[in-house]
Amino acid sequence: MPGIESLTEVLVTELRDLYDAEKRLTKAIPRMAKKSTNGALRKALTDHLKETNRQVRRLEQAFRQLGERPRGKACAGMRGIIEEGDEHAGEQYQTEALRDAVIIGSAMRVEHYEMAAYMGAIEHARILGQSTVKDLLEATLAEEEAADKKLQAIGQTVNPAAATGDADQEDGGGRSRKSAQARGRKRFAKKR
Ligand code: FE
Ligand code: ZN
Ligand code: FE
Q: What is the homologous superfamily of the domain 7-159 according to CATH?
């Protein structure tokens, strides 16, 4: 076997990588949503799970368009990003807002990695004149970009909430510190 000989084969390889990545995400996103406590974050993740299922179907259409059977090839990059996300979300946190802040960061890593992969495949589809494949991939890229923006917006609520403990520490104590710590302990206890 002479290996990969054409840009079309490169594109098919990229689709296989993405197919594996998206399928992994259909299992990973529910875990992230389950660990989230912020309502908007949970909703963003479950909404994006539905989109991710559609993205898998779009990739299957792209394979068929290229005369290929849909087949994944292990995406080591996404496997690593998901592994890290699970690890970070599973740490112990003083407040649930801190965990949510970390989950947002993990989810944004996922989206950016996907965006880079789709952008590369889109460019290859464009060069090859595969306009149907290009359109399918662009529809998904738009969803990934929107998911990223949504997560960023949710972070603007979650991150200040996560920072309350820091502000109280700077005050050097007082009533607000105690109440924040009490809240933190309460949430922490509930989670364990
Ligand atoms: Fe995706
Ligand atoms: Zn990959
Ligand atoms: Fe995504």
A: Ferritin, core subunit, four-helix bundle (1.20.1260.10)
